Each structure stands twice: as C-alpha cells, then as structure tokens.
Amino acid sequence: MTNKELQQLTETISLAFFKRPFTHTARFNNRLRTTGGRYLLKSHDIELNPKQYERYGKEELIGIIKHELCHYHLHLEGKGYKHGDKDFQEWLAKTGAPRYCKTAQDEQTVLVYTCTSCSRTYHRRRKINTQKYVCGTCHGKLKFLSKKVLHQRK
Fold first, then answer.
1. Spatial distance between the Cα atoms of 97 and 26, rounded to a whole number of angstroms
2. Fewer CB atoms near the end CB (10 Å): N or C, the chain?
3. Residue 121 belongs to what domain range?
4. Catalytic residue chosen out of the listed positions 68, 77, 90, 107
5. Does 75 share its domain with 115?
6. Is 90 an active-site residue?
7. Residues 33 and 12 in one domain
8. Beta carbons within 10 angstroms of residue 63's beta carbon
9. In angstroms, how far is CA 81 from the centroid of its own chain?
10. Rounded to two decimals, what is the model's pTM?
C-alpha cells in the first residue's frame, strides 16, 4: 500500500465512521517501532507503522486508523483527545476502534556470550564489554559467541 492509497483509505474511513472529512495528511513512517500509529498535534497529520500492515493486514490497519482518527477529530473539536479522557473512550467504543494494536515487536535479538574457562553461557539483550566484565562463576574471560533472533508467540 502506498501513501496515496493510505490517504484515500483514511479519508474514506473518516467519512464513513465519523461523518467528518479528514483534511490533513496520513502517511507511513518506517521509524515507528513500538506503536501502531500516532496523531501529530501540531500538524494534525497521522503517521502509521507500515509493519502493522505488512504483518497483520488491512483489518488491523483500519483499526489503527480509526483509533488515530478519534484523536484527530476530538482534538479539532476541542474535546478530550487523550487516552484517559471520557470522550475518547466513548468514541473508541462507538466506532469499534481498538484501544491497543497488536504488538509491533515480534522478534527479539539476544546476544550469547560464553566463559572461556568454565563454558558457562550468558544470554543478554545488550552488548557486554568483554574487556571489563568477567564470568560471575569463575572470573574467567567472556567471549562473544553468537547473535540469536527469538520469535515471540502470537
């Protein structure tokens, strides 16, 4: 899906569910990692995570667009547009928009280190300075072994 198709889809959803036009820009943002989308308060644009569309399809994307359009229309009307506001929660229920999107992070990278003396393995999310840190069991030197990618269950 291109940004132009996304713009048309957003305008269509806005008219169908909110009976109001969407007059700003909707676009994909590849830098979004942990969120499905965001509404920009200053420019009134909507940015969406393209990975959500690639992984979960058009239905999930439509749900995220509805969620962001709730923020958009409530903000423009001067009503409560934040997640905790009553107006926002009512609009989510009325339009069938999800409160949360499916997780954007399906993969997790784990670094594996091993002790050169006792062969104990360490699994870490962050890099270890092997010049500074040693094995907790025998105080031997640590050596980088490999990088694993773990897939989370759905």
1. 17
2. C
3. 107-151
4. 68
5. no
6. no
7. yes
8. 23
9. 19
10. 0.71
